[in-house]
Amino acid sequence: MGRLASVNVGLPRDIVWQGKTVHTGIWKTPVEGPRMARRLNLDGDGQGDLNGHGGERRAVFVYQLDSYRYWQRYLRRDDFVHGQFGENFTVDGLSDAEVCIGDRYRIGGALFEVTQPRVTCYRLGIRMNEPEMAALVVKHGRPGFYFRVLEEGQVQAGDEIVQVASGPEHMTVSEIDALLYKPGHPRGQLERALRIPMLSVGWRRSLEALLTQARDGATTTGNAGLNAAAGPPPAWRGFRPFRVSRKVRESGNVISLLLEPVDGKPIATALPGQFVVLRFEPASVPALMRSYSLSGEPGASHYRISIKREAHGAAGAFIDDRLQIGDIVQASAARGDFTLRPGDTPVVLLSAGIGVTPVLSMLHVLAAEASTREVWWLHGTRNGREHPFAEETRGLLNSLAHYHSYVCYSSPDPKDRPNVDFDAAGRLDMRAVQKLDLPPNADFYICGPSTFMSDLTAGLVALGVAPTQVHTELFGAGPSITPGIEASPRRQPHPPAGAVATGPMVSFARSGLDVHWGPSFQTLLELAEACDVPVRFACRTGVCHTCESGLVAGTVGYRPDPIDAPSDGNVLICCAQPAGDVVIDL
After folding, report:
1. Could you give the 3-state DSSP secondary structure of residue 580?
2. DSSP reduced 3-state for 336
3. What does DSSP assign to residue 564?
4. Mapping DSSP to helix (H, G, I), strand (E, B) and coil, where does residue 221 land?
5. Phi–psi pair at 213, nearest 5 degrees
6. Which of 37, 173, 497, 513 sits between 20 and 30 A of 357, alpha carbons compared?
7. Quick count: other Cβ atoms within 10 Å of Cβ 343?
8. What phi, psi does 514 have (nearest 5°)?
9. How far apart (Å, rounded) are the C-alpha atoms in residues 257 and 579?
């Protein structure tokens, strides 16, 4: 039996930290007398970042007095007050090593159920004035845990905590936490944890990823539970030489390359929607590395990629002006998890600009399979001169039994024909999408600029589409993942200030930036920040986890582990953040 030592609440507020404004509800204050525990939180309480905190399964955060005493000794501090760790309930008893996921407790007039360990974020470091606090909590195995409220009722300090039911599998908070964060992920323990129905969605997804990794016989590296889904493992490590066999102009600013392996051996058939990393080696400039989605029907004999020439893009200019048929480029195996899901539900393919390429690959597969699924093709571009694959797309759609097409030109030319070349003038946005009566049970695949994807994703979910049915692929670098940080004008990635370094070349593939490593940087993270390359603001905590929404919350850590280490010494690093693939040429 335990005791409720303190009930703590607090509403989100803005604070200034390291020159940025952070919106956070980490500050909690003890309250006197009874307080109502409701389905989503306690009366008077709130969370600043609902992606990482709050919600029905994270309604009440619990932390123990025993952990208070532990941190007081470890940190040599005596200034703690109840609510110090952002908890709603400060409790005497209920240690992480004893409480099990699914356990139920009666406290006052309310009934609670344990759902997950806490995923500690960087805001705890702000509250504690200990920047490494989130990483320390993981390292020392003292996370605390969340309750959901099964029966609403009043609680107050001094209430006894009475266990009324035990969770299935009898797995403690400490065991679940260690299963994800500590070395060793026994398959039997993972299967046991996944039999617990009360375990929250975010933790379930992470443990499922670890179990898949275990079943693959460790063919993938790193901790799959701490990364966004990365798709099946690549077919080979590092790069293989490919020859440019065709070069086709698709529009005024888009060129396609057909690449065939130099050794003539088959390549593993990619999944529709995946991408590859290419390394170009111009004679007069440093090597360039970029990632490109495959734009044709996946096959075992070649890759097709399509590149848009941007105003100041080094790789696009090289490909357009200098790369010739017969030239050799280095290519990685296809990778990525933005892929067409099998099934018989409707498919909606939405794209803007050069974001058309991965969904075009999906359309190729649907056509090749003579799919009977209902297929919607929605595309937005500027005008006919900048509309690649127009005829190709029409041919593919006409081969399908059930299809719909809707093309928007934001600035049509006089010669562009309404209802022939395009269907509507204006942008492909949520207002346009709402007019189309799209099937809500469809799988939606969205690719384009970050604002295009975020607006459509939010709009579709607001219309009742399940978040799990909305799949996105960022084309190019996206905004930094900075939960709780007030938005600020985004600078384009650029070389770091100061003298030009002479170390190995680092290519930020999605940002299109190539810079030399220098002695002033201790980590890739520091270099990325110096270049204004999108990163997670919480990277320095060393904590990473998939949050309830399925987005990655947390960090990629100090030094991302290389997923490929070919014998030629080139190391390809793909960070967990989809917006920030990083390639380093050592």
Report:
1. helix
2. coil
3. B
4. coil
5. -60, -40
6. 513
7. 9
8. -120, 120
9. 24
Q: Which of 215, 393, 429 is nearest to 295 (CA)?
A: 393
Model confidence pLDDT, tens digit, residues 227-255 = 544 556 678 878 899 999 999 999 999 99
Q: Model confidence over 274-291: pLDDT tens digits?
A: 999 898 887 766 677 888
142-153 residue pLDDT tens: 999 999 999 999
On the question of pLDDT at 557 being above 50, the answer is no
Instruction: Write down the residue that tokens 């900048």 correspond to.
Output: 386
10 Å CB burial of residue 150 (0-12, 13-18, 19+) is middle
User: Could you give the 3-state DSSP secondary structure of residue 251?
Assistant: coil
Question: Which two tokens mark 307?
Answer: 């590149």
pLDDT given at position 485: 47
C-alpha 393 chain-centroid distance? 29
Is the entire prediction scored with pTM above 0.70? no
Confidence band of 566 (pLDDT split at 50, 70, 90): very low
Burial 429-463 (b: 16+ CB within 10 A, else e): bbebbeeeebbeebbbbbbbbbebbebbbebbeee
359 by DSSP, 3-state: which? helix
> Are 143 and 154 within 8 A, CB to CB?
no
Cα torsion through 295, 296, 301, 303, rounded to 10: -10
